[in-house]
Amino acid sequence: MSDCLTNKLLKLFKEQISKIVKSVIDASLIFMVPLWHRRKLKKLRGRKKFKIVFFALNSSAWKFETLYRLMEKDEHFDPLILVCPITYYDRDNMIRLMDKEYDYFRSHGYSVLNSCNSGTGNWLDVKKEIAPDVIFFTHPWDMSRPQYLIRNYLDHLTCYSPYGFYVSDLHRKSYSDFFYSALWRNFLETEIHKGFYSEMSKRPSNGVVTGYPWADLITDKNYKPGNPWKKSIYNLKRIIWAPHHTIPEQGNSIDFSSFLTYSGIMISVAERLHDRIQIAFKPHPLLKKKLYTDPGWGKERTDKYYLKWALMDNGQLCEDDYSDLFLTSDAMIHDSMSFIAEYLYAGKPSLFLMNDPDIEKRLNEIGKLAVRQHYHAFNEKDISDFIEDVVLAGNDIKEDERKEFCNIYLKPPNSVTASENIFNEIRACLFNA
């Protein structure tokens, strides 16, 4: 046997042993986590005020506006947002993004800290400098520094509610990941998601159906959205174009995104109908990074393309929170996974770009139902027909169907909002510990 083959076999053997050891350790930790949570609750018994910390990575995935405000108004809670780094980026871009997100949250009236000290470059020690009682994660992925991941807080009361409405079948499989089993509470969107979670999770008892908290603002009849659209001398219909990040070769086998096909076409549509529509370019936050490394795009072309949307008279670039954008829009054109369900809350017509004609095979049960509430496009003509017939002419034949779907599947339980369900669950657990 050659030395080369021997080394390969030895490397493979070590990798397998490492996986087995990690699996055993994780199983032991999952067994211990409920005991640590009960111990934490016992320590909090009798307390009158609790510090709640939200680990935020980017404002576009911030879905806790209503929940934060509920806690802010309650004398027993002291909520705080901690801006954490996204380590996918190089250090300069990572720090720049954190500063941008810090400014966003501060300008919107939140109590917020930056996890990186701009003066010293040191990272904040959450346990020593904040000492939180409850921690909310806003992403389930290991995309931040180790001190801001769940493995560092197994003895804390940790919570999660999805940053996007889960419609992909891949998300069902992810429920078996360590992150979900380590949580104190995993707040789920619907009873259908609870079924997935019960099937796949190693610890399904921590799953609680509350509804989807981001939708609380969208469905609040008393909420008055701001106007994020550019002013125009024309009476324009407002369309959101939201391409996903799963471009070919970079989609993790999903390949939902049709951006490479329609990037030029959407510019042409905006220019051709400049006196009839305006388009908000709302790309997935990860799309830019993937275009930077795409052989046909790269950083220069990508930056120029994003800038073109930002400067167009009837176009704009939207990279932050999109609640008001949804509420003040007339329609959406997209291939985003989460928006398959999220935009239905807004009650407006939407066109799904069918980059994959077999998309339903990639969706879970509620995703299959939700995508059928959209109009579908397979080519440029379908996009033009949707804009002319549905958006401009108002022939929205799916309106009643969408309303029925929302009433059956998307309403939160207990005749209250999703945020109220989460708030009530946490409050009951802390005061009845």
Low-pLDDT sequence parts: none
CATH topology of the largest domain: Rossmann fold
Provide mean pLDDT, rounded: 92
Q: What is the oligomer described by this structure?
A: single chain
Tally of helical segments: 17
Number of domains: 2
Radius of gyration (Å): 23 Å
What is the CATH architecture assignment of the largest domain? Answer: 3-Layer(aba) Sandwich
Number of strands: 13
**Main pleated sheet:** 7 strands, parallel
Name of the CATH first level of the largest domain: Alpha Beta
Structural class: alpha/beta
Major sheet: order of its strands? 3-2-1-4-5-6-7
The rounded distance between the terminal residues' Cα atoms is 63 Å
**Basic shape:** globular
Percent helix: 40-55%
Q: State which percent range the strand residues make up.
A: 5-15%
Keywords:
single chain, 433 residues, alpha/beta, Rossmann fold, 2 domains, 7-stranded parallel β-sheet, 6-stranded parallel β-sheet, 13% strand
Topology:
Elements: H1 3-44, E1 50-56, H2 65-73, E2 77-83, H3 91-107, E3 112-114, H4 126-129, E4 134-137, E5 157-160, H5 169-174, H6 178-182, E6 185-188, H7 191-200, E7 207-209, H8 215-218, E8 237-242, H9 259-272, E9 277-281, H10 287-292, H11 298-311, E10 315-317, H12 323-327, E11 331-334, H13 339-346, E12 350-353, H14 365-371, E13 375-377, H15 380-392, H16 399-410, H17 418-431
Parallel strand pairs: 1-2, 1-4, 2-3, 4-5, 5-6, 6-7, 8-9, 8-11, 9-10, 11-12, 12-13
Helix pairs in contact: 2-17
